Amino acid sequence: MTGRALRAQISVRCCGTTAPERTAGPCWQLFVMVPGRAGDWPVFTWPTSLQAPTLEERSAALAALGYTLADGAGWEWCEDTTPEYHPHPARVALMAAARVRPADGDCGVTGAARCPAAHPDDPTPCDGPAVVTVLDSGNAGAEGCEHHGARMLASLERGRVYPLPDAPAGAAIRVFTAADGIPPFVWYEGAPRTQPNQRSHAENRRRGVTS
């Protein structure tokens, strides 16, 4: 596998669902949590039933979405209660989650298979596995390959980069150095680059602009 494992979750929709299509009653759904908006996550919906999908059915659903369980991964179950706004008394709601990976093992074929640092609007593939963590000024961040880690760092104010424990030597330094020459949100090719906050740090230095 060339990238970090993603996470899949199955849960019962006790009142049915309207997305991606309406169901006539309770059903189970499987989501693969990929970088980007939740509305863009791959989803599989089983026919109307309260019966939890079997292991074989879960594997088949993952395969239909282009994923498989990560090496050594298994489904972990937990319980919750249905929200009060549902039109029935509170019930126990079951859900399960597991680490998954793209079935083809390629981190750079599709956006769904890319590292978490890849912006949803950035069409470029990963250049390898996730090797760094990029943090913003509030310590929120994501793991990324060197390519997307640098692009993410370049788009943050007062961002920081740290190597993951298994990163090759110099990964964080390479990301930091690359980010210096990348303008913020570089994937927006038609964006104006006239203001200092729209240009790379290196370009601002050449123009004599200091922060």
Report on this structure.
The chain has 211 residues and is of the alpha+beta class. It has helices at residues 55-65, 146-154, 171-180, 201-206, and strands at residues 6-13, 27-33, 43-45, 67-69, 76-81, 92-102, 132-135, 141-144, 160-163. α2 crosses α3. The chain starts with 5 loop residues before the first strand and ends in a 5-residue tail after the last helix. 25% of the residues are buried. Residues 107-112 have low confidence and may be disordered.
Set out the fold topology.
Blueprint: E1 6-13, E2 27-33, E3 43-45, H1 55-65, E4 67-69, E5 76-81, E6 92-102, E7 132-135, E8 141-144, H2 146-154, E9 160-163, H3 171-180, H4 201-206
Antiparallel strand pairs: 1-2, 1-6, 2-3, 4-6, 5-6, 7-8, 7-9
Helix pairs in contact: 2-3
Q: Tell me the radius of gyration.
A: 21 Å
Q: What amount of the residues lies in strands?
A: 15-25%
Backbone structural class: alpha+beta
- Helical residue percent band: 10-25%
Head-to-tail CA distance between termini = 41 Å
Reported for the largest beta sheet, the result is: 6 strands, antiparallel
Unreliable parts: 107-112
Please tell me the overall pLDDT.
82
How many extended strands?
9
Overall shape: elongated
- Tell me the number of helical segments per DSSP (H or I, 4 or more residues long): 4
Helices and strands, in order, run as EEEHEEEEEHEHH
